[in-house]
Design goal:
Helices cover about 40% and strands about 15% of the residues.
Length: about 450
């Protein structure tokens, strides 16, 4: 059987959730199709899961950025080698694109690029992903010929046509074509997918870097989003849609129009995404309509249930609005995933104890699985607004690997990483005792224990 040659092979690499495809390479494929550039998508996350089956998670631990054990690296290299040899070489791609979502994709990208260069010596490799903006490619040691930051659609087409490093080319989201999941569908089947409504954020929280990544908030219209949902239902019989952007309600008028479209759509589906609480933006009927529109879960980054701490972090809504939103989501059967950050710069021990009271208030919903939690200590990220406010904190170890955790508050005495680590463990323990599911708690505990040990080694 003769296989049609392609211009570029697009790779999604571990470690990512294998329950659904990460959308980046499939969005690129849609745009490449429109520009008559032949491509094929390869999802090494799902392929690895099918290959190793129940051992997949254990083997892929070797790829985790904080896991310093090469126990399974040779097995991974052999699988990637065989995969490229049997599935990619015959397509004779001149380019390879590797999507890097986070630091946890770095090791797999390193292995893959090495194998690609070995098996297809003349191939040109381009990497893309927001994580590259804050860390040099040299630091990650990925031997790529080019890298793209920002929207990849226009930039990748420009690169393939000119063979020159393109500038950042962010475009109108409503003019991008629908993502093409056909390759994933052919290989693995498809029941749930990622989808996005916007890039950037209307807020400017002190701890966040979204504004630096995407200075201008861009959004898709309700009609445009609904068109993509209908297409994927009719083409692939998709049941579940996971919205991946920072917030789904950045443009409240378009959001409410989208609710109306979904409410009147008769197909059986479900969806959820991250939601930003705003003062006086929603009423009780809106939450009823969300339920009718088939929303089943919502992510809410309240960060702290303490109003003055949220204000210090740049979140300006009051506690009345916070409780109004959470209560109405729950009343309408919409599960809440609540993010809590422990040990903010102005968080006193009394404030921390009030966070425990907040969990007690909703503990019945925690037992029912209607509220799930993500709990972690506050980091001061590079390029965040908080990084520049050195009058509020001091970082004695700015050049170390985990320096974003190692700061000490100038406002609250003795609020260093040790104290934040202690408070984080207490809150996770209390939450679990109350019956809450704390997402990623084992991974978080293992990572923070490592950071804690390193911090105290340095202090000594």
């Amino acid at each position: 059987m003769i296989r049609e040659e392609i211009a570029i092979a697009l790779f999604s690499v571990p470690i990512l959730d294998t329950r659904y495809p990460h959308s980046s390479i499939y969005q690129l494929k849609g745009y490449l199709n429109e520009n008559n550039i032949k491509s094929k998508c390869f999802d090494l996350n799902k392929a690895s899961e099918q290959h190793w089956k129940k051992y997949n998670n254990d083997i892929n631990k070797s790829l985790h950025i904080d896991y310093n054990n090469d126990k399974h690296t040779d097995e991974i290299k052999k699988f990637y080698y065989d995969y490229v040899k049997t599935k990619v070489i015959s397509l004779k791609p001149k380019w390879a694109g590797i999507s890097i979502f986070s630091k946890d994709n770095i090791k797999s990208a390193q292995i893959l690029q090495s194998i690609l260069k070995k098996l297809i010596p003349n191939i040109k490799i381009v990497i893309g992903g927001s994580v590259l903006k804050y860390n040099s490619n040299d630091q990650y040691n990925i031997q790529a010929d080019f890298q793209i930051i920002g929207d990849g659609e226009k930039a990748l087409v420009e690169l393939i046509k000119t063979n020159k490093q393109p500038p950042i080319l962010n475009g109108d989201l409503n003019k991008y074509p629908i993502a093409d999941y056909q390759d994933y569908y052919n290989d693995f089947g498809l029941k749930r997918i990622h989808i996005y409504t916007s890039k950037g954020c209307i807020n400017n929280c002190f701890f966040c870097t979204i504004k630096d990544l995407f200075p201008k908030y861009r959004y898709r219209t309700a009609d445009n989003i609904f068109k993509e949902i209908k297409y994927n239902i009719e083409t692939y019989s998709i049941v579940t849609f996971i919205f991946t952007d920072s917030l789904i309600n950045g443009n409240i008028l378009e959001f409410k129009k989208f609710i109306s479209l979904m409410k009147n759509y008769k197909r059986k589906i479900e969806w959820g995404g991250n939601f930003a609480i705003k003062n006086n933006a929603m009423n009780e009927q809106d939450f009823i309509d969300l339920y009718k529109a088939k929303m089943i879960w919502v992510g809410i980054g309240i960060e702290s249930p303490i109003e003055h701490i949220r204000r210090d972090l740049g979140k300006i809504y009051n506690n009345k609005e916070m409780y109004f939103h959470i209560d109405n989501f729950l009343k309408n059967g919409i599960r809440c995933v609540i993010n809590l950050m422990v040990g903010s710069i102005t968080e006193t021990n009394e404030d921390f104890l009030k966070s425990i009271d907040f969990l007690k208030h909703y503990s019945d919903f925690g037992k029912q699985g209607m509220i799930r939690l993500v709990i972690s200590p506050l980091r001061i990220l590079k390029a965040s607004r908080l990084e520049k406010l050195t009058n509020l904190y001091i970082n004695k170890y700015p050049n170390l690997e985990y320096s974003d955790f190692y700061w000490e508050s100038k406002i609250v005495p003795n609020l260093d990483f040790n104290e934040r680590y202690k408070r984080t463990n207490i809150l996770i323990k209390k939450a679990k005792e109350m019956g809450y599911m704390v997402k990623h708690d084992k991974i978080i505990n293992k990572k923070f224990k490592k950071i804690f040990n390193e911090y105290n080694r340095i202090k000594i």
